[in-house]
Each structure stands twice: as structure tokens, then as C-alpha cells.
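Hi team,

Filling in the usual template for the complex we talked about on Friday. All components are listed, including any nucleic acid strands or ligand strings, so the model treats them as one assembly.

SUBMITTER: L.P.
PURPOSE: interface mapping
COMPONENTS: two
RESIDUES: 468
SEQUENCES:
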Amino acid sequence: MNWIRDDRGSAMVLTLMLAPLLLVALAGVLQLGALRVAGARVRAAADLATLVAVNDQDDAELARSGALRLSSDAALVAREYFARELALSAPLLNGPADEIAAAADIAAYASAPAYDMRTGARYDRPTVRVAVDVPVRTPVFGALLLRPVTILHVLAVSSPR
Amino acid sequence: MNRGSIAGGLGLLVLWSSPALAWDPFLDEGRSEPPVPEASFDPAPFIAPPPGLYYVTDTYVEDVVTSSGSLTTYTTATVHESTGSYARVLDTVPTGASSAFDGSAFNGRRALGDGRSVAGTYYENFVFADGPFVPISIVFFQDDAELARPQATITPPATATPSRPAPPSTVRPLVVACCADERPVVIAPLPAPTKPVRPVISILPVGIPLTMVEVLRGRAVTLWPRAFADGREVPVRSWTVVAGDAGDALATAGSGGVPFRSSWPRLAPPGGAYEIVFRIEVDTPETGHRTVDGAITVVVRSPALQD
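RESULT (copied from the run log):
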């Protein structure tokens, strides 16, 4: 009966049993952190795109009425800059940045007040809105039998104030 | 075992790391290129006009009448500047001939000493408004000259007709220097200025009058102080900013051919705006020498994110 009371080697067994659990927990935490970084980048890309588009004003309308009004190509400008910004985070994305930007719902409200049919918001100034679903790779989640691709829902709204 | 776990954790960190670099819009331009000179001011993009219209590169400033001895020259002062407007020739008239556009030009058409109208060309100004070219005003560019001659309306010598009443004080006799034996020439006095002068501020030199303008923070904007008398535009001799925050203005005073250019790097207090007051000086036969104050409200805005 001495082998029952003999605890030599038990620490190694315990370590071998707990190490996989610890590694899984660590991998999950790291994947969550990477997902937050990806989310911050995508949101920053959308914010910058809307700001650039709002900064593009219709000079002819300004001379005519003295009021700021979005340029006619504001939505195109926002989409182009969103694609450029997303391209910098291409390794994190589950798809080409151009395709993700092309699928984005971008609306430019040249005159105000205006109502956003998607969000129901009321805009009192000329506004550019970007609403997009960005697929982000989460391989660790996939290895843990979770979703290998996580969809980030991003909404950015900008207007001159 | 501990070393292996630490090494494994570090390895995962290294594998999942990615550069946190923002997109640089000037990355393709190269760092070693010489600095690009500041672009000149372009108030409006060039748009190909239809046949008959051309892009204005010399802008009307004022009518100029100069006298050198017995020669009087009628010309038009311009400034070489593209204001984004377009023009076409309406009519070219010789000395004394009438035109269908007489009375339609905002600067009028002068007359020679003998009463005949001066020669010149009528132009019609246009601005581009999202498709059609909208006529804004008609201007007359005078181009003529005359030699002073003794006229029939001669002031008799005071000793010859002592009973005749003295001429009004506004009559200014001129003696032609070249001919000592010639008699004084009487020039009729100008009519007293009675027309009210209305100040106008616009973004374009022939643009629509504005009382309020929104500008983006730091964006340069051009304002033209203008004046109208009896519904017709009269040339501005000079303007001065007499009140309000002029921002980073290039100049706070100038002649009629030079606009007020400025940008505002700071926003006004919440709910507030900058009220700019211009003192506009005009001096035309219609209005006389007058100064009027015109104000415009400048609302400075900046692109911002909404929650």
C-alpha cells in the first residue's frame, strides 16, 4: 500500500493535465485581444472615411447660398477612403478590402434635415454615414470549435458642426 | 516545463502580432521630393464653356478717365484674375452710336464732352450653376478719346454783360493751356447724388449676395464687398474691415478689384458666429463719394463624428 501514499511524480501529472486548459484559456484571451484590435482598426477606418467625405464640400452651392453642402461624390469618396484604410488591416480580414468596402452601406445626406432610413436618426447637418459588416478572421476561435470568422458591425456618422 | 510554456506563450505573441501602422496618404509621393509650392487660389474649377462664351481672365475694376493736355482718354481698368465667371461679347459700339444695351450695364456708359456716348464694348457675365450658364450682369468696357475744343457755350466776359447773373458755384471753368487766346470752356456740373447705395457681400465677384456663409475651419474663403445703386452694381473704390473677427486674413483693406480672403482656424463659441462688417467706399457720378457698411455672418464649422 505504499504506492498509494507515494506522491512522487504527482506534480508532473497535474501539470500535464492542466497545461492544455491553461493554453486554451491563454489562446482565447489572445484571440479576444486581437479581435478588439481589429475592431478598433475597422472603426477608425470608417470614421476617417466619413470625416474625409464631409470635408469635401460643394463650392458652387457655397457661392450660391452660403451654406455648406456635401459634394455630389461624397459617398464615393467615403467608400474609396474606407477601402484604403481597410487595406492596411488586410491580414485580419476574411476577404479583400475592396469587396468589403464595396458591400458597405454608405449614404450621403447632402441637405439637412434628413432622416436615416437605416438607423432612424435625424441629421440636422449634411451627413455621411457608413454602416458595414466586416468579417474578421478568428482562427483560434475556430480551433476551439467556435466561429472561425467573426463579423464586426460598424457604424460611423460624421457631419460639420 | 516552465521554460517551454513561457517560450510557447512568447511564440504565440510573436505569431499574432501585426504592425499597428495607419495608412499614409502621402506614402507614394516620396520623402525626398522638394516641397511643392503653395497652389495659387482657384475660386472655381474651369468648365468648358459653350461656343461664344469664354473664361474670364481679366476682371473689370473701374472706368478710368485721364486727361493729358487737351486729350481726354476713356479706358477701363482691369485686374488679371480668374474669378470663375464667363463672358461673351454683346455689342461693340463706335463713338456716338446707340446700342440696344445702353442703360443695362451696371457701370453705365459715359458721354464725351460734346454729349456723344463713348465707344466701347458690352459684355455679359455668366456663372456656371450645375449645368446652365446663368447670366449675372452686363458691363461696358469703354475705349475712346477726344480732343478738347472751344464750344458754343462760352462764358462771356464779366465786363461785357454785367447784368447777367453769375454762374452757379458748381460750374467749373477750365482754360485750355495750349491756346491762350481761346476762351474758357464750361463743363456742366454733375447731378447731385441721390441714389441710395446698398452694400452686398458675395463669394464670387458676380455672385449672389449673401448675408450668412458657412465655412469649414481653416478653409480659405473669398468675400467680395460690392455695392448697388438703384438696382445696378456700381464699382467699389475700396473696402475696409471695420468690425468683427477677420480670422487669418491676408489683408483687412483693399481696392474694389481685390477681394477679402481669409480663413478661420478657430470655431466660434457654441451657438455663436463671426460678424464681419465691411466699410465700402464708392465714388461714381450716380452715387457721389459715399461709404456704406455691409455685414456678413460667418459660421465656422468643422467635420466631426456623431455618437
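MY TAKE: Confidence is low (pLDDT under 50) at residues 30-44, 150-190 of chain B. Chain B is about 5% helix and 40% strand.

Thanks, L.
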